[in-house]
Amino acid sequence: MLGRAAIAATLCIASAALADGDAEKGHAVFHTQCAICHRITPDGAKSIGPNLFGVVGRKSGTLAGYSYSSAMKASNLTWNDATLEQYLPAPMKLIPGIKMTYAGLKNPAQLADLIAYLNTAK
């Protein structure tokens, strides 16, 4: 498990790819990669995973009405471009013990697009 200092140092590294993210393409990535388990609707409806509407800026493990793992609750992250960039390619590597079994989004362009899309869901 990474220590808090290592996580913080890793999250400080900004990716130029994020600046190039296309929210419209990210919408398509969401529906092919994420929608099987997540919703992204203002009504807050959850699915297998928590609703991701408004996820950017939210503290990890805090959406009311969703039963998070203790690992996610204890991760003490705030979802922003940097944390999402580190989390989405390997969720279980960044936060061991979470319930999310997704192997990760490895394509940097798709990752940037998805993050751009998540930023629009407010």
TrEMBL record:
Swiss-Prot/TrEMBL keywords: Electron transport, Heme, Iron, Metal-binding, Signal, Transport
Example GO molecular function: metal ion binding
Start and end residues of each Cytochrome c domain: 21-122
InterPro entries given in the database record: Cyt_c-like_dom, Cyt_c-like_dom_sf, Cyt_c_1A/1B
Signal peptide annotation: 1-19
Domain of life of the native organism: Bacteria
Record protein name field: Cytochrome c family protein
